[in-house]
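Convert to structure. Protein one:
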Amino acid sequence: MTLTNQDVVELTAWRRKLHQHPEISNEEEVTASEVVDFLADTGADQVLTGLGGHGVAVIYDSGKTGPTVMFRSELDALPIHELSDVPHSSLVPGKSHMCGHEGHTAILAALGRQLGRKRPARGRVVLMFQPAEETGNGAAGVVADPRFGEIAPDFAFSLHNLPGVPFGEVRLKTGVVNCASRGMRIVLNGKTAHSSMPETGISPMLAVSRLMPMLTELGNGTFANDDFGMVTVTHVTMGEAVFGIAPGVAEVWATLRTRRDDHMANLCASAEALVTQIATDHRLSPQYDYHEIFVASVNQPEAVKHLRRALDEEGILHSEDNLPMRASEDFGVFGHNAASAMFFLGAGERHPALHNPDYDFPDDLIPIGSRVFMRTMRNLLGG
């Protein structure tokens, strides 16, 4: 079963429509409705909506005993203003699909087109259109939804396009492929003062100037080793934007990153101890909390074996180059209850990078990605 030329034309046009109407994490209501409408005529056996927010699961059931195989894409866009001259550029100021999630969604829709014409010989296929990947709460929200128990996949697969890799080539390996990460928001509370008498207040200025470099120094190891840790200061504010007030409060945001989930707790503890010590030294009251928490994405051997077989049978070049990646990806949550793996599909060596304002998903990846997923599905479920 393959896509027809008309399928490719319609999927490309739909991908570009989604690109023009981006919705950021936790706001993907219209995008979710677009998915349901686009796949309506495929005759899915069950459609679940509102999963973990705006998630959609489209299920194709053979009616016969067998494994449940899930393929996942993401729905959300980014808060980035698009700077490109493509005719289908974003119509929403300050929001755009600069990570290619609408392209991944089109790849899953391509599977739906084909499954509508021919079901698997056994088991079920679940097309999971997941919300809120960029903020790290989407996959966790889907899994926590009581209705996810109706899906309970045995296998979970996903892909991500990857600029910098030759077009159409694949990167795939067993083990960690994306780091664990989380955002740490630190607040240092002191006391304001008149700027002519700063000694009457308690300023966080010196504490912030010490804290920023010392946070980054908490990183350890090299990225090639499992003990790798990294801290990146991403945002700082202090006081009010006026000349007459010495500051009394500051915020420092930092991203903590490790290759392994079990090392994240140690890095957090070290960062918290550092914040407490510096705050104490400068008579400040510290607070901290965590946001956008991503677990590590770990490809499991059995799932990788099925992807490699599909790639070989489809004649697609693949290697382990460029993996693992420092960037985070919340697909790893699905691997806690299923044999899961993600591969990375080359978007071209000179293609604009992900999250760049001039990025656009290459439409010619739609049939390539769908071929890999369809072959994987047929190998597991027949048909």
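Protein two, convert as well:
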Amino acid sequence: MSRTHPSGTRPSGTEQAWAALGGDPALLPRVETVGRGAPGGPGGPLPARLPVMELARSTVAACSLAAAELAARRTARPTPRVRVDDGAVATAFTSERHLRIDGRAPTAFAPLSRFWRTADGWVRTHANYPHHRARLLGTLGLPADAPDAAALDAVAASFAGRRGGEIEETVYAAGGLAVAARTPEKWAAGPQGVAVRDTPLVGRERLDDAPARGSAPLTGEPLLPLAGVRVLDLTRVIAGPVATRTLALLGADVLRIDAPGLPESADAHSDTGFGKRSVDLDLGGRGGAAVFDELLGGADVVVTGYRPGALERFGLTPESLAARRPGLVIGRLSAWGRGPWQERRGFDSLVQVATGIAAAEAPDGPEDPPGALPAQALDHGTGYLLAAGVLRALTEQHEEGGSRLLTLSLARTAAWLLDELPSGPRPGDRSGAPEPYEPEKWLTETDGPLGRLRHALPPVGFDGSPADWSRPPGPLGSDEPVWLGAG
């Protein structure tokens, strides 16, 4: 990933991402970037010390090129040109901040999702979901319904006298989420950092020799490279839903599956549920398992976003899925990837803290807490990479067949950001200063079952592609577990 050009420079982020996806480098000149500034730095629409803007534009560019490539394959025409706009990309990467639901702004983080001073540094907790809040408070002997003010005081007093590593392990053992802040060097030298570093940015495996599936040629406008493709979406929060939202934009019939009673943010779904339908399904029950089997029999793609092992108890390993539906494309992502932490829950904000991103973005004051990226870029970037991986796998299947497995993690994307992406202007870059960033240009309003939504427009596109999703999100679990056009 970090090989250099003969000039001694690192490949651009788009070149790196496209190579990780197995893409043909001859297609890269089809990509044009507008409004481009430096890969990182204090200016631009996503100001940061790390090259966040490079990560953002690169993942969107790779996804857009993968979509254009598949459209060309299905139309038997030349690959359309791809145009990536930094303003559109930055707005999409902060889409949850721009979202308004009938004028209301969602709450990004609950009061107990924050940094805390410890005896030896800092720790960050995540308690947006009620069950995670209850487990965190349970480690202090507090009831789940403790008022926020009392809970804040109790957590602060307890953590101030304890070491971050001990807090991390205690809260994890109770099923909660807390991560001690590390430097990039400390994370890279630790066992999980080593395990992640030894994995590719996009893991790509062929699981069998299932024959290639035929697909109807595409006609008309807009070009929908995934027309007729059926996607089972077993993802939550941001990264996975961003991937499947992108697949829906490009024409796929995406059916999101959630477990009844498992809390999910309705506000997050208002942002990432565009283009999809949503059902509740108990995979542990006989009836739910039977319905899933029937849906799987008509699926082309399955995308999962749970930690390794979470779905295996339902028999949903990649190998078993491919055996039951030969020719399937399976995309899976998790927070930490494989390694000692693989069974731990995780979120973008926690991965930033563990991997040293928060330390790299910390303010200069000695008493200031660690910093954060200007967007949940690990979530969004990994989501677009996963969507790109699915698109490329489908393209490869047209000629080669075979069930395919794609594996990504937020922690591996973090390593890419920290160690591999170019962090300064490239020699010969004549793009000049970034154009003024006006997010309103990339926002629109849509009326639907959840009310009037102000939301970000999709940044993924190519000549002839759709400019917006075909349908707004509906309430979670409100649809029937059937494929469109079935029966």
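The longest helix spans residues 52-75. DSSP finds 17 helices and 15 strands in the chain.
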